[in-house]
Write a structure and sequence with these properties.
alpha+beta; 2 domains; 5 helices; 5-stranded antiparallel beta sheet; binds zinc ion; Quinone Oxidoreductase, Chain A, domain 1
Length: 205
């Protein structure tokens, strides 16, 4: 496989060739068709996030075709198109995982941060965190949905019918952030939601 690898914070990615990865139990191997570039990738390359595993292949908006399946994996299946997002693995045992809030897991692994991501021709993913993309025929168009799209979709789902504002523990209205709301606007159109856009910055509308 070919990959772009970060070996030290602040350095340019290095082109490398290495053997194709083999999926372990519970994992799948993917031939990468498309990958998005997220602002978080730049934070990783600049060394601005804790816990980065080096060397690392960045990239967490991955679309690809399953070309290998590890032991114990029933789904996704060989030949399926899947999406691989930022959250790449959770422990399944901490209080958050047991409460079905695994996005807050105490011991997570993140794609392109603490496990190799999609700036490569091939990638390996936890099968539980690879989503079959049924009905998506354009890998490039689907890639941004794996990060910005997921954030917006989850916010819209939590908002329910949108009649109750969502506040955090401090009472602040939760708002979507900068570029994410562009993708969210497309998601809410597809979900036929009545959505209003607000900004804390009075210079924006
Ligand atoms: Zn992202
Ligand atoms: Zn956990």
């Amino acid at each position: 496989m070919k990959a772009m690898v970060l070996t030290a914070p602040g350095q340019q990615l290095a082109f490398v060739e290495r053997p194709d990865p083999t999926p372990a139990p519970g994992e799948i191997g993917v031939r990468v068709e498309a990958r998005g570039v997220c602002r978080t990738d730049l934070h990783i390359i600049d060394g601005e996030l804790p816990g980065i595993r080096l060397p690392i292949v960045p990239g967490h908006e991955i679309v690809g075709i399953v070309d290998a399946v590890g032991p114990g994996v029933a789904s996704p299946r060989l030949g399926q198109r899947v999406g691989i997002p930022w959250l790449g693995h959770t422990c399944g045992a901490c209080p958050y995982c047991k409460a079905h809030r695994e996005n807050l897991c105490d011991r997570p692994l993140f794609t392109g941060h603490s496990r190799d991501g999609g700036f490569a021709t091939h990638a390996v993913a936890d099968a539980a965190y690879a989503f079959p993309l049924v009905g998506f025929c354009d890998p490039v168009a689907a890639a941004p949905l794996l990060c910005a799209g997921l954030i917006g979709w989850r916010s819209l789902k939590l908002a329910g019918e949108g009649r109750t504002p969502i506040h955090d523990d401090a009472g602040n209205l939760i708002a979507l952030l900068h570029h994410v709301d562009d993708v969210t606007a497309e998601v809410q159109k597809a979900m036929d939601c009545d959505t209003r856009s607000v900004s804390a910055d009075s210079r924006r509308t």
